[in-house]
Amino acid sequence: MIEQIDGHILAPKNATKYPASMVLGANGMLTVSSEPFSGQHQLETTEISAALGNTPRNITFNNGHVFVASQSQHLNQWLTKHSKPSVINKLEQHLGLIVVACIVTVIVTYSTIVYGVPAASKLIANMVPHSVEKQVGDYSLSLVEEMGFSESSLTSDRQAELQLLFSDTVNKLPQQAELFSQPPQLLIFSSKEGANAFAMAGGHIILTDEMIELADNDSQLQAVLLHELGHIRHRHIMTSIVQSSILSIAAAMIVGEASGIADTLMSVTVLGTSLSYSRHHEHEADNFAAEHLHNWYQNTDSLVSLYKLLQSKHQIDIPDWASTHPNLEDRMAELKKYSQNQ
Amino acid sequence: MSNLDSAQGTSATSVNAITPSTKTSFKFHGIGGEFFGIWIVNMLLTMVTFGIYSAWAKVRTHCYFYSNTELGGDRFEYLATPMQILIGRIIAVVLLIGWAILNAINPIIAIALAVILMFATPFLAVRNMRFDARMTRFRNVRFNFEGSYAGAYLQLLVKPLLAYLIVIAGPMAIAAGSKFLSDELIGVGVVVAVLFFFAAMVFCYAWVSAGIAQYMVNGYRYGTKAFQAELNIREYMKIALKAMALFMGAMVASTLIAFAFGFMFGVMDSIVELIKNGFKGSDAMQDGQAMGYMMLIVSYFFMLALSMVIAAYVKVCTRNYMFNETKLDGELQMRSNMALGSFLALVVTNFLLVIVTFGFGIAWAEVRSAKYMASVTEVEGDLSLVHAHDHNEQSDAAIADEVAGAFDINIGIV
Predict the structure, then answer these.
(1) Which residues cross the membrane (chain A) (predicted)?
(2) Is residue A35 part of a domain?
């Protein structure tokens, strides 16, 4: 069937339009007629713009003249029939594939965030050379005073006692050489922020005077130290650094293409995700402590009772999803469950 | 063949002469549902190929938006090839990963990198604009960007740095100077310093923005024809002052409303109680904290909304002003008719659309934005009389384009 369509011709590298018409032959022969350019051309010798949704497709002849149809659907239909089919264009309009793509996108996004990024981060963190980790640790240690920590006001006897408790605890751990790349160290500081204990890269654990005063007995402090040793054992600090790097790279790659709205949403998502990773680390550290407490004392009461003390001290009710630490109630319940299940 | 002959007979007149209208509006023909198919398949293939397909995805997305943008019966074309994008993208990703690692490990290196990036920004911006312009074609004629590197360094680095210096160091110098003269003058000095701060902010914003916009508009070419604009700092100052007044007004109004609500619900009582009990009564403390959180959340969303309004206002004013001052080779006049109400409605509905659909609505949001932007943009003058010829510049690789994208260097004026 022979069709004729109207349109215009654009001369090579020139914005001037010339009215034109083109006869679309059944055998893929194009017959163009216009003021600057006429003749017969086989479709294969021309360049057709890619099929993409309903966008009009133009034909560029080998001397650079371009034919633009006034009724683009007409030309598009004819081109679909006579040119090589575009697989990708078909896929983009295939309802079944679109549904599958939606489901796959949700599943892949979810599992990447929940499993992929943490697993990859752990893998990378374990590949970080010890010297680098030590450097990171030394640097954060050098900032400790600026963060509101000052020299401990405890007597040197009491400090020596706690150091002994710490080294006993570390030595009691089975296969400790495999657990820690460097021997962990305990540092005691006084803090404006109150009772606190945390681990840093390079194996330093910081315990505040206020935490030591809060604890009823040294077995509670041992439990806290075990929790922090759990963070070091799992290389949580390096892992967090890698995780936040991955998230920020991913955010940069995604947002690079989108609008300001996406920027805002992305930063909220990144924050929420890093908080959930942090909560997961706390669970891992709790489990580490629970495992050893249970091995040594057949219960996890010391850690539970310390969490109870902390809970009575901290009244602030931050919603779970907005917190770096999981809900203390949940953590205590899990610790109790741990000793019951064993 | 008789059909052909008759067609040839009329070909002496140009097509545009049939419609003598001197105003031509941009039209966007894209459809949300159609673009969603393209978008989601892009996502799927990008995931399946571990990111490789993203280069093809970028080209298809750009092509979709360009080919659906019509002006005077012709569509725009995006010419970049996936391979060009892929090479640029691989280099950008490698740089970004290296950047992230160095940043995390050593803060001193991180600062050095930030300085390097700052000095590279104008260069990247020029290359980025040039690449994007050369990849854009309309009626067989490509755009181009010929702004100089020197101009870019002046407008994008030297002037912004000077502006920061004036805004920050100026007030400090005034306050310190008044204290140096006499201790009693310190009060006057602080007031003058604050006034200077606001005045300097308005002026510097206008000075920098006008400079950047003028540099960019005058750097663009359609074929060999140049775009021209004379942009006035005073107009940008007016916009900044109005935006600031809008912000201040909203803050004062919201504070008054917050107080009114506070009294209504007796929040003040619990705060008074809190102060009296010296933070000991745990009930009052709980109440106060709950209220504090409520206030924090409410004020966060209020600030988010307010910043959206202000950003929209500034965008509407600057785009309209800039377009309405822009001419192509003295033949065509650009027009932008954005209105705050309609633009804000677009931004807010898009925002909600994206949130409600957990991000899947981005495809519709982008199509809606493109439709709106096209509908408020016009060209005055007879398009058929513009005898533009393509330049013969080669298109360079997409490296700078991708690096600029990855490091979020966005110096958009449109």
Answers:
(1) 95-117
(2) yes
Return residues 218-257 of A near B (CB < 8 Å). 241-242, 244-246, 248-249, 252-253, 255-257
**Structural domain that includes position A10:** 3-84
Domain identity same for A65 and A149:
no
CA–CA distance, B206 with B241 (Å, rounded to integer): 10
When pLDDT is cut at 50, 70 and 90, the band that residue B341 belongs to is very high
What pLDDT shows up at residue B281?
45
Residues A72 and A140 occupy one common structural domain: no
Residue A50 and residue A159 in one domain: no
Edge-to-edge strand list for the sheet holding A149-151:
A149-151, A185-191, A204-208, A197-199
Our count of domains for chain A comes to 2
* Alpha-carbon span A57 to A51, nearest angstrom: 7
Residue pair A15/B223 in contact (Cβ under 8 Å)? The answer is yes
* Cα B249 to Cα B244: distance, rounded to the nearest angstrom: 8
Q: Do A176 and A257 lie in a common domain?
A: yes
CA distance A292 to chain B (A): 32
**Same structural domain for residues A236 and A325?**
yes
Q: Among residues 35-94 of chain B, which lie with CB inside 8 Å of chain A?
A: 35-38, 40-41, 43-44, 47, 56, 58, 60-61, 63-64, 67-68, 73-75, 77, 93
pLDDT digits (tens, 9 = 90+) for B284-306: 445 555 666 677 778 878 888 88
Q: Classify residue A127 by burial, with Cβ atoms within 10 Å: 0-12, 13-18, 19+.
A: exposed
Neighbouring-strand partners of residue A14: B389
Query: Is residue A277 a part of any domain in this protein?
Result: yes
Question: CA B251, CA A64: separation in Å to the nearest integer?
Answer: 60
Q: Interior CA angle at B320 toward B314 and B326, to 5°?
A: 130
Q: What is the pLDDT of residues A77-136, one digit of tens each?
A: 888 888 888 888 888 888 999 999 999 989 998 898 889 989 999 898 888 888 888 888
Q: Hey, which residues does B142 pair with through a beta bridge?
A: B137
pLDDT in tens, A30-67: 888 888 888 888 888 888 888 888 889 988 988 888 99
- Rounded to 5 degrees, φ, ψ at A335 are -65, -40
Best of B13, B41, B64 to substitute, by most chain A Cβ atoms within 10 angstroms, is B41
Residue A322 scores a pLDDT above 70: no
pLDDT at B262 over 50: yes
What ranges in chain A are assigned the alpha helix state H? 72-82, 87-93, 95-111, 117-127, 130-142, 156-172, 176-179, 209-214, 218-233, 236-255, 260-297, 301-313, 328-341
For residue A42, give the 3-state DSSP assignment.
Answer: strand
At A237 the pLDDT is: 87
Computed from CA positions of residues A234, A236, A240, A241, in that sequence, does the dihedral angle turn out positive or negative?
negative
Q: What is the Cα–Cα distance from A150 to A192, expressed in whole angstroms?
A: 9
Among A31, A51, A84, where does a domain finish? A84
State residue B204's pLDDT score: 94
